[in-house]
Amino acid sequence: MEINWLIVLAVAVGAIVLLFFLIKKNWKDEKEVEKELNYFEKSEASETNDNEDGL
Fold first, then answer.
1. Of 37, 42, 20, residue with least CA distance to 51
2. pLDDT in tens for each of the 55 residues of the chain?
3. CA 27 to chain centre
4. What does the pLDDT read at residue 11?
5. Surface-to-core class of residue 40, CB atoms within 10 Å of its CB (0-12 exposed, 13-18 middle, 19+ buried)
6. In whole angstroms, what is the distance from residue 43 CA to residue 54 CA?
């Protein structure tokens, strides 16, 4: 049985491109999730407490 190197090359290149795409997407998603987890809104109560402490 003879190996068709053209098909093997096409599969290998496709796998490398897919791997690169998934890694790049993962980095982007990781940054978005980290940004969402670090984000919080100050409540009105905490804002008024901050102002009273400064007086």
1. 42
2. 788 999 999 999 999 999 999 999 999 989 888 888 887 766 666 666 666 555 5
3. 4
4. 97
5. exposed
6. 17
